[in-house]
Amino acid sequence: LTNGVSLREEMNVPEDTIVFADSGGFDFSSGKVDTTPEETLATQRQLSADIYGTVDLPLSRENRDAENERRVDQSTQYALSASDQHDGDGFLLASVHGYDPETVRNTIRYLETNGDFDGYALGSMVPIRTDYKKVTKLILSARQATDKHLHVYGLGGLVYQPLLLYLGVDSFDSSAFI
Q1: What is the pLDDT of residues 152-175, one digit of tens each?
Q2: What is the predicted pLDDT for the residue at 104?
Q3: Stronger pLDDT, 108 or 43, i.e. the higher one
Q4: What's residue 27's pLDDT?
Q5: Beta carbons within 8 Å of 30's beta carbon, 6+ residues apart
Q6: How many CB atoms are located within 10 Å of the residue 103 CB?
Q7: Which distant-in-sequence residues (6+ apart) come within 8 Å of 159 by Cβ?
Q8: In terms of C-beta density within 10 A (0-12 exposed, 13-18 middle, 19 or more buried), how is residue 127 classed?
Q9: How many helices (H) and strands (E) does the chain have?
Q10: How far apart are CA 152 and CA 123, in angstroms?
Q11: What is the DSSP string of 10-63?
Q12: Amino acid 13: pLDDT
């Protein structure tokens, strides 16, 4: 996988750089998941990541409501399975999806009650990134549901950085090169 080198060495970054290895959920947009929560955690450990993201199935504007609901449920179950398998080494973020604030809020509350997570990573933002009002409502619903670390997948571009910080997001990544 890494030819005997850590991800930090592969990327040529200092040891004090925090490495977040998510599951690569956007690779699963077709719906076919080729890993398990256990395999993903093992890979993230092997990469010497500091922060782990749970396996997730991002939502799509093209999917029917029933399919997106199934993806929310499956991502939630993957997160709970990862929580059961997590040995406490590394920071575990549960990936959360929803195209309405109620789903995001309820999913985080459910995961808080039934799992053990260091924070949450809000996904499925890239397909709706031009709808600033909707994105803002979703992020605020996640922030209001937990005081734990909040990461947002895919919106770390220059336009979004100030907004994400203002909304209380602790970390973010970008789907675009920056």
Answers
A1: 998 987 888 999 999 999 999 886
A2: 98
A3: 108
A4: 61
A5: none
A6: 18
A7: none
A8: middle
A9: 6, 6
A10: 6
A11: HHT--TTS--EE---GGGGTTS-----HHHHHHHHHHTT-SEEE-------TTS
A12: 83
Q: How confident is the model at residue 106 (pLDDT cuts 50, 70, 90)?
A: very high
Instruction: Answer whether 151's CB lies under 8 Å from 93's CB.
Output: yes
Q: What's the average model confidence in pLDDT over 35-52?
A: 89
Mean pLDDT, residues 35-39 taken together: 90
Report the C-alpha gap between 20 and 58 in whole angstroms.
18
149 phi and psi angles, rounded to 5 deg: -50, 135
Mean pLDDT of 103-110: 98
**Which token pair is 44?**
């993230």
Read off φ and ψ for residue 155, nearest 5 degrees.
-110, 25
Q: Which two tokens stand for residue 115?
A: 């799992």
**Which of 67, 76, 89, 5 is CA-nearest to residue 37?**
76
- The Cα 90–Cα 78 span in angstroms is 17
pLDDT over threshold 60, residue 96: yes
Residue 178 and residue 174: Cα distance in Å, rounded? 7
In sequence order, the 6+-apart residues with CB closer than 8 A to the CB of 172 are 151, 152, 153, 155, 156, 160, 161, 164
Nearest CA-CA partner of 97 in 84, 86, 110, 81: 110
